[in-house]
């Protein structure tokens, strides 16, 4: 069995003969091949005696070519690595024409690499990002499994809109040019595949609640979709969501759970992917040098992660946050794009980041939002105008978590559904939870890509998902 480069660098002993397979990063002086197999950020150097191989064969050792080498592990004579491979045998498994292979050993822009998303994973940056992404995903499952949560797969195709925003992708098999019509001239969805109007899910929360009210503690981790025409560095049309739901948990317990969860997955990933994160930190430092001094981050990437891991999140009511923002210098000097004039305003990313990065200088949990700007399922407070909602705000990201204590009272929930113009018949099953054994319960949603964005220091969400889906773009 051939060995991974990661295991060779970690466990390999001098004199041991091994076989490894990987892709050529560089080939210098007809002698030194830098090979990477994706298992680590580190390359391993294979040293070739060019007299043992003919010239035509050596010319095929180009960047991107897949090769297999067999040889002995020896102490490295050069700088930058402790060991290298003294090659005895070598095969080229797959050629790579240097005239047309786009990922050459030079600096490429992120925009260029997005156009070659099927190959960008071979760069150091994207290899590191995707290994971190994989580790974060494992840490998420580990946290919940170790804490007695059950993993639930909620539907991707749904007839309900959990957010009430209406920005959903329709799922249909009807003929777009000649759909069946009702007598009133509307599209007759009774003749569609599911016999009703269906969409791609925006959240697994509502279905997740049904399982929490039987199993106690559950979580979902799957793809979600928003047909929001947002061409920004923070939005995707297809992204992954982590959504725990817990029976008998109130808003305070929900905040405790979210904070503990985030700290755990960041700590686990920092310890497991230290080399990748150190590489991404250096990359970010180079990027920061191109910015004006006042726009540079006060923390390095690892300092930022450790700050979140080791400090308590500041908990602030929406009302207190509005007062802070109203009296802030950027608001008074009309520097905010969206000025804060009165209580009830829906906070924008610029406001969230001001609270985190300028005012509190720590992660912030905002709670008790105005009912009018939040979803129908959030529990109404006794004041009749706020709900038991909470958002977690992070530096550089803004909102990373949104959650709430769910409305467990049948009559109140029915009134909220009516007030928001939602078809009560579509949610008969959801209302049943409030008829049969209702209880306080809570949950939250965390956008996985935003967590990866924060952990890697990347600045565009399109660079932390393998194949981004955005308006006018469904390539690959």
From TrEMBL:
CC per GO annotation: cytoplasm
EC number, UniProt record: 6.1.1.22
Xref: Gene3D superfamilies: Bira Bifunctional Protein, Domain 2, Nucleic acid-binding proteins
Keywords on record: Aminoacyl-tRNA synthetase, ATP-binding, Coiled coil, Cytoplasm, Ligase, Nucleotide-binding, Protein biosynthesis
Subunit structure: Homodimer.
Record family assignment: Belongs to the class-II aminoacyl-tRNA synthetase family.
Protein name: Asparagine--tRNA ligase
Gene label: asnS
